[in-house]
Amino acid sequence: MLFRPASRLTRHLLLIVFGLFMLYPLLWMISSSVKPENLIFREPGLLPHDLTGANYSGGWHALKHSFGYYLWNSAVITVLAVVGNLVACSLAAYAFARLEFPLKKLWFTVMLLSIMLPHHVTVVPQYIMFSKIGWINTIWPIVVPKFLATDAFFIFLMVQFIRTLPRELDEAAAIDGAGHWRTFVQVILPLCVPALATTAIFTFIWTWNDFFTQNLYLTNSDNLTAPVALRQFLDSSSNSSWGPMFAMSIVSLGPIFGFFLAGQKYLVRGMATTGFK
C-alpha cells in the first residue's frame, strides 16, 4: 500500500513525458509559424525570440487563391465523404448483421479480406476506369466510392456494434408491422450513434488529411484541397516558403482538432462497444 501512490505518480510522470515527446513536432511547428522565416532553422528551440504574424497573412494569400478557398474545397469533399460512409456503411452493416441472403458468410469474408488489400494495388485500375468516364480533375473519384460502401473497416465496425444490440428489438418492431427499412431507421440507427460517430470522426480525419488520392485526381489549381495546396509552398528549384507553409499547416489542423474534440466521448464509446474489446 505504501508504494502504490509513488508508482501511480511515476506512471503519470512517464505519461506526461511521453506525451510531450509526441507533441514536440506540433509545438515546434506552432513556434516556427510565428518566427521570421530566416530564423526558423537558425533557432531550433520552442520559444521564439522574435514574433511575427507575417507568415499567416502572407501564407493566406500566397497562392493563386486565398487559402480559405482550398479549405472550402477540402470541406466539401470531406463532408460528402462522411455522409457517404455513414449512409452506405450503415446499410451494408445492417444487412450483414441482421438480414439473411445467399452466400452471406462468403461475401462477409470477402469484405474482411479487402481490408488487407493495399490501396496502392487498386490505384492503377481505378485511375484508368475514372479516366475513361471523364472523372479526372473532379471530386467524383474521391466521393462516389464512399457512397458505395468501399470502406470495409467501417462496415466491420458497425456490424460488430449492431450484433451487440438484442434481436428482441427487431422482433418487437416486426410485431408492430415494421419492415426492414423502418426497423433500420427507427430502431437500429438511433442506437448506433457511438459507431456512427466513430465512423464520422475517422472518415473526417482520413479524408481531410488525404494527400495521395487528392493529388492524384485533382491536378487543376482551381480544384486543389488544403493538403495539396500546402505542397505548393515547397519548391525544389528555388526557395521554399517554410514560414507560410507552417502557418497554413496550423490553420488546416484546426478543423481536425475541433471535430475530434466535439465527438471524443462518442469515439470512446464506439470503440469500447464494438469488436475491439
Automatic annotation (TrEMBL):
The keyword Acetylation does not apply. Keywords: Cell membrane, Membrane, Transmembrane, Transmembrane helix, Transport. It is a multi-pass membrane protein. Its main location: membrane. Residues 71-263 form the ABC transmembrane type-1 domain. The chain crosses the membrane at residues 12-30, 70-94, 106-128, 140-162, 183-208, 242-262. It holds the Pfam family BPD_transp_1. Gene3D superfamilies: MetI-like. One of its GO terms (cellular component) is plasma membrane. The keyword Cell membrane applies. It comes from the Bacteria. It is found in: Cell membrane. SUPFAM superfamilies: MetI-like. One of its GO terms (biological process) is transmembrane transport. PANTHER family: ABC TRANSPORTER PERMEASE PROTEIN MG189-RELATED-RELATED (PTHR43744), ABC TRANSPORTER PERMEASE PROTEIN YESQ-RELATED (PTHR43744:SF6). Belongs to the binding-protein-dependent transport system permease family. This is Transport system permease ABC transporter protein.
